[in-house]
Amino acid sequence: MFLAHATPGNVPPELTPVRLLTGWVFEPIPIVVAMLFGGLYLYGVHKLRARGDSWSRWRSLSFLGLGLGTFLLATESALAAYDTVLLSVHMVQHMVLAMITPIFLALGAPITLALRTLPAKWRNRLNALLHSRYAKVVTFPAFAGFVFVLNPFALYFTPWYELTLRNTFMHDMNHVHFVIIGCMWFWPLLGLDPMPRASYPMRLLAVFATLPFHAWLGIAIMSSSNVLAGDWYNDLGRDWGASPLSDQGTAGGILWGSGDIIGLLVFLVLFVQWARASEREAVREDRRLDRLELIEAGRKAREERLAREAAEAGGDALAGLDVAGKSVPKSTLPGDSARTEEADSAVRVAHGPEPRSADAAE
Rounded to 5 degrees, what are φ and ψ at 111? Predict the structure, then answer.
């Protein structure tokens, strides 16, 4: 294990493949940060599963293993042991913290986890923050991309970089700063959390627009005849490896190449996400149209049933009218029969008894 920060007169031995694997350091601030956020994440997952809800293991792996894992790798491994000795090593560390760690932290969806586990009071506050004007401005691709691109230019071409080499606290805060700026850029692009997002065409355009800036910065560092933080590297007294200017050229190449490669990968991932989102939207639209067709079919079926019932009811009414309109013989009516019998009796009384026929007398 080496010193956390090399100082003039106290430089670690030459960097070899073996020391690259074994040259770990102890940096308390990154460890505390990782333990804090990792512990909160694990508590949220435990609380969620304790009440019977599920949480994706891939999200947990992304946040804890690949997100916080790469953060600790960059701040506790040989990258941290040699980041103040070789600018090329620092540049690898820079790209891990600014571009790789934020991507996996975003894919872990920690804000979604917080919204599902926080008490109602804090959940409402977090929701209000996510939908505030501040969040919309900070996550807007044009603003976030500008800050993401400007950050390394401001670091390497101002006295800020040498200050982070000489001051231990500023050095550690610079690592955290890289992660924060990276999260501000990548979370609205690739993350799964509910937050203000631009459309996919806008996000693709923003990523495409930032790609050349890493190349320009890398070329500027490679072609510079002045050593960045030259006083620091000259006072360091390193007597092995490439010269500071030659190492600076390697660092510029690392920034150029890795920035373009990661940027292109992000561009491709965004394109795939856009295609999948379009497929999901098409499926949702098909289901909506199917529901509308079912509703329309049900409406037509009800109208046809009501029409049939109305037609049947009208036919029965007409049949009743026909029966009521027919003439009925008087003899079939009870009152008429009685009146007819009374009239016949009166006639018989008036005329006397009817003569009996011979056959009847016999």
Answer: -70, -40
From the list 106, 223, 72, 97, the residue with the least C-alpha distance to 151 is 97
- Within the chain, residue ranges assigned H as helices are 17-22, 28-50, 57-60, 69-76, 78-81, 87-95, 101-107, 110-117, 120-130, 133-138, 141-156, 160-166, 168-190, 200-223, 230-236, 244-325, 334-351, 358-361
User: Does residue 343 carry a pLDDT above 60?
Assistant: no
Q: Which of 115, 127, 107, 121 is nearest to 47 (CA)?
A: 115
Residue 78 CB burial class (10 angstroms; 0-12, 13-18, ≥19)? buried
- Cα dihedral 48, 50, 53, 57, rounded to 10, equals 70
What residue type is assigned to position 78 of the chain?
A
Within 8 A by CB and 6+ apart from 37, the residues are 68, 110
Contact assessment for residue 185 and residue 148, using Cβ atoms and an 8 Å cutoff: yes
Spatial separation of the C-alpha atoms in residues 49 and 55, rounded to whole Å: 7
β-pair partners for 10? 7
Backbone angles phi, psi at 252, to 5 degrees: -60, -40
Q: What pLDDT score does 357 carry?
A: 42
177 secondary structure, DSSP code: H
> What would the pLDDT profile of 39-57 be if each residue is shown by its tens digit?
999 999 999 998 888 899 9
> Could you tell me the two tokens for 20?
């690259």
CA distance 178 to 176: 5
Please give the distance of CA 214 from its chain centroid, rounded to a whole number.
Answer: 27
| pLDDT mean over 231-244 | 85
Q: What is the pTM of this model?
A: 0.73
Q: What digits encode the pLDDT tens for the residues 71-87? A: 999 999 889 889 889 99
Nearest 5°: phi and psi at 7?
A: -130, 160
Query: How does residue 38 score in pLDDT terms, banded at 50, 70 and 90?
Result: very high
